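Purpose: get a first structural picture of the assembly so the mutagenesis plan has something to point at.
Setup: four entries, given in the order below. No constraints added.
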Amino acid sequence: MGSVWGNAIKLSIFGESHGGGIGCVLDGFPAGVPYDEAFILAEMDRRAPGKNRQSTARREKDLPKVLSGVFEGKTSGAPISCVIENTDTRSKDYRNLIEQPRPGHADYTGRVRYQGCNDYRGGGHFSGRLTAPLVFAGAMCKLFLRSKGIEVGSHISAIGQIMDTPFDDVHVPTELLAKLRTQAYPVINPRAEEAMLVQIDQAREAQDSVGGIIECAVTGMPVGIGSPMLSPVEGRLSSILFSVPAVKGVEFGAGFSIAAMRGSEANDCMYLDGDTVKTETNNNGGILGGITNGMPIIVRAAIKPTPSISREQRTLHLIDQQVEPLVIKGRHDPCIVTRAAPVIEAAVAVAVTDLYLEAYGYARS
Amino acid sequence: MGSVWGNAIKLSIFGESHGGGIGCVLDGFPAGVPYDEAFILAEMDRRAPGKNRQSTARREKDLPKVLSGVFEGKTSGAPISCVIENTDTRSKDYRNLIEQPRPGHADYTGRVRYQGCNDYRGGGHFSGRLTAPLVFAGAMCKLFLRSKGIEVGSHISAIGQIMDTPFDDVHVPTELLAKLRTQAYPVINPRAEEAMLVQIDQAREAQDSVGGIIECAVTGMPVGIGSPMLSPVEGRLSSILFSVPAVKGVEFGAGFSIAAMRGSEANDCMYLDGDTVKTETNNNGGILGGITNGMPIIVRAAIKPTPSISREQRTLHLIDQQVEPLVIKGRHDPCIVTRAAPVIEAAVAVAVTDLYLEAYGYARS
Amino acid sequence: MGSVWGNAIKLSIFGESHGGGIGCVLDGFPAGVPYDEAFILAEMDRRAPGKNRQSTARREKDLPKVLSGVFEGKTSGAPISCVIENTDTRSKDYRNLIEQPRPGHADYTGRVRYQGCNDYRGGGHFSGRLTAPLVFAGAMCKLFLRSKGIEVGSHISAIGQIMDTPFDDVHVPTELLAKLRTQAYPVINPRAEEAMLVQIDQAREAQDSVGGIIECAVTGMPVGIGSPMLSPVEGRLSSILFSVPAVKGVEFGAGFSIAAMRGSEANDCMYLDGDTVKTETNNNGGILGGITNGMPIIVRAAIKPTPSISREQRTLHLIDQQVEPLVIKGRHDPCIVTRAAPVIEAAVAVAVTDLYLEAYGYARS
Amino acid sequence: MGSVWGNAIKLSIFGESHGGGIGCVLDGFPAGVPYDEAFILAEMDRRAPGKNRQSTARREKDLPKVLSGVFEGKTSGAPISCVIENTDTRSKDYRNLIEQPRPGHADYTGRVRYQGCNDYRGGGHFSGRLTAPLVFAGAMCKLFLRSKGIEVGSHISAIGQIMDTPFDDVHVPTELLAKLRTQAYPVINPRAEEAMLVQIDQAREAQDSVGGIIECAVTGMPVGIGSPMLSPVEGRLSSILFSVPAVKGVEFGAGFSIAAMRGSEANDCMYLDGDTVKTETNNNGGILGGITNGMPIIVRAAIKPTPSISREQRTLHLIDQQVEPLVIKGRHDPCIVTRAAPVIEAAVAVAVTDLYLEAYGYARS
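Result (structure tokens, whole complex):
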């Protein structure tokens, strides 16, 4: 329990937003995967703050310094460790939050959990900044998965009430995933993108924030991966997806809308495409009985609006024991969803790598 | 990985629908909890099939035989094991499904996963029948949690398009949870219940099935339970909730609808109620930063319509390599949601017990 | 933590000596392994009590009833569960031990650990009887390992001060392991066997007991299995070997005697035997850096003398708060080492199967 | 599996001897433990090489840089991460070892395990240098345990054939443990120390090395910690002790010598010392049925002689496929046992902390 995840691989994430550094250790990662630094940095850059008006003004290079596990340009099989410096920290912004915990944040729960000892500055270990090492780990896993023909990609499915065109869940082209990776805003429908940006601007102008949904796809997954009952693919993916701060819902395939379907609609009928068993629809999101069926895995994560907003709120002051006005200083994204896609993908990539390695082991060439 | 779940407690579920028996082992369960057999049997009965026209005609007593872990009327601290016989099995019903796997079922994925060796009769280890030992384990956990002032209860939030009145998420009375436990259909709003039954009848008449949503609440949870980052309360609960067959979505608090909220709406403002810190709203479902905040935990699970339907479907015949008509014989629930509430509660109770024991250990009196 | 072990497979053992039954669940076991009932029963029989004057007079058939995980003569891939009845229980023998815990037994520690709630009769969950399901699980694992060319066997290395001829650690013939399995006393040197039986007889006559050492070998192990640092093969094997009641020491290769060696003696020099890398000596017991090197794994476990002895002892009476005489009634082995070989082998077979599956996974290439 | 250990805490160790740095992450560590830097550095210094003629000439400061988990002088509850630089690396020394793996080292097994991709320089991830972060983690755990009245200490029990006076296993004074910590050679009997140094000198002069045994004690441990069957205290301790490179045997209490005892000797009779249940002897090493009994935990680890020796050996050359002479260049300890005591203590301290936290949890009462 804690900041460690996985079975065949173990990902350990450490660090506090304004501490001596953040980073991760990725244990059990296969040997011999070429280390593609440009790819890693591009992934880190997709998540990095400060790139546009939608995200926080904090600017950090987020350069991961790899201390171990990479040797002569390839993974060595030993634990991969990386450290990212905290370079742009303005701790004084957060002082008043000790006494008046921010609503929607972990200030109060963290304080109780750690008996008042936790580093509260900038959210400490709870900070969204901790997703940077997750993206690093996810990028490593994507490199491995790519060597097995498996791709992980995503788009912004919704921001506020604006919905993007959903993935064609029975056929998600690799080219589309590649294109989305390079977009400033990974949205399929350009008109939806425009409307989303308007929503964000309106939220910023109102000194408020807005949430959204990321839809993620995994293609090229072999059939027969995963386990029934207490360790299904959905459970494994969801357990790491809820680790991404602000995620409050996770659904697969038709998800919550399957509840209103009839069985005759929801059932995905099988057919043969050449030698491959496929399904005509993909309401089960590529997973049946907890096990992959070879169709794309489709998963969506609901992301709450950034709890840090500039407009005045009223909430409990712990010393005064009164509900009092609160104005949160500092730099805040009016919408973190625009930066969330690579984080969701990273979580999925880590989980899929774990599932893959359980199925095939480390000893197979 | 597989049919084992938990950290401080470990639940191992075994059995196949038409095999020698099903059951579970619950390891690490605290010593000294009085074994309330009447309560256990009542919980088993809530899940049991054959009670009304909404559920399968298969009738089984589902009497759990406790082999170990209970001594002189209390839990002994040793692993609690229970076995439930399979008494009413008609295996011949399922023979033709080897060659033509049922859509929406694990027939095909199970066959690939286990290289054709798995017991396919009645779904084998994938059968919904395997939720019976989960309900047993959940009932044991409820007895423990009750001794700590924690209650777990649920209602049918939706069947098809009919929605029940949601829980008042800032105050879920113990009496309401107790009342729902005793109802044939745990629905808060009697008119919704009527409309739901109509939906189910219509599905049955159409030889079809219908899905739904269960909303579950945990009350009395202490503040400060759980861990940030890679082991949040949401991740722990979701990993076992997706273990319940047919669950395709899990959300906490406002869930997916939080995506369309503004931060100023979504943030739960804190206040003091006597000595207790509470929040005015509960959009975060009792969990902030992965850690409980003392408010009720609110979680919803989307359940797909029973994939076994009587009406003719078309799907792949693996030998003929053709899409052919399929008529599924046997007895099927037109709606499993009516029996799902105790199963969802059981999964939640097991997870909450695990989280509780991690926090307080086994050595505290 | 508790009565569950493993990573790729999970073994859960349950039951109390005089309770409703004992058994195990073996999760994650590969599909398609033929179920050889005669072999399983022969293994159970090797451990069973009551066969000769060296072991307890308690006679139980110890027939494992397999409830799940075996289908049409092969493992199905679903959890394998087995239940063994407790047929010959004389609980009244143990009544007085609540107040005066037996020295060398878990009576006192179990009582504190479980706040006085544990089933104390016959040792309850601490009973040596719980090794019966371990032997069942080990027998299943041996069937799997045999299909991969891996054999696990052992002999009684010492009873009291009498030592058997050790294994030739660089070459342990499969025929020798097979022969030892069929012997009433698995001893290599017949003269040592005779002397050992004399030691046991002397202990019985003195109403006392005597300990010993089991030496176990694993042959046919591929090179490159296991992991360095915190999960070495030695650590994995030892963690389950110390689970066998009465084991107080575990050593590999030269073991404790390596401490008195010079490096030039201890180092195992490599050579090529055909295409295979071998070592001239095997002081490292087939493991270097926590990873198998292809030589036989050699491991020894020290087993303490049965703590239940007929002769009078003096120990604390918890109510009287006085050291008082204690006479333990009931049936006791003067030497459990004669029955320990299949148990030690079972523990090793379970661990080696777990290590093997981590390396090669569950999916066929 | 891999370089991660623990349940309630998770220790993740990373790094390669000549790579970008080594270190560890300690997850789940309790909040509020004062960070005593002087103590940490003193522990690191006890393990550090280059201090005397018995150890390697390599000199490194081994200063742990703490990046996270310590805030305002106390542990924050978030993962504690530390990085140690590799400052004095002479990689060219190790070049020839790719083709001719050193006997007694992991050169060959590591190469197979990681398909030739691992960093072989200086042993890479297999290097004894990786014990430095383990000592750091152990020092943190000692600080926690000390706050609970638990002490961990050790002495050199044997070097070659020279034995130290053993601990008085029923009473290990805290003062003795404190004194041993400050000694250059933690030996109880000064004459034994002298004789040990002579053994080491003789080995060095012979361009050879010598092994030994560390005996470790844990005092102040509460009764009733640990679990029976598959997770006993012995199994937990041994699984991390075998993670210390060169350990080939682990025993508790009387250990292997218990095999030659009679039951009447081996049984530890209980008596009352004030309110405390104690035993007259401690042949079970403070553990009965896998659970602590309140007596000191006594554990010994056998350490093989340094495999890197200066004198010429003969071993397989993988390219030439011939057994050829090998001379290992570089700097080598003729005896690592003199530096092993703090490492063994660290492993024990980590395991005991894990066991303690499982028993008492992370939440305050």
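The first helix of chain C runs from residue 37 to 47.
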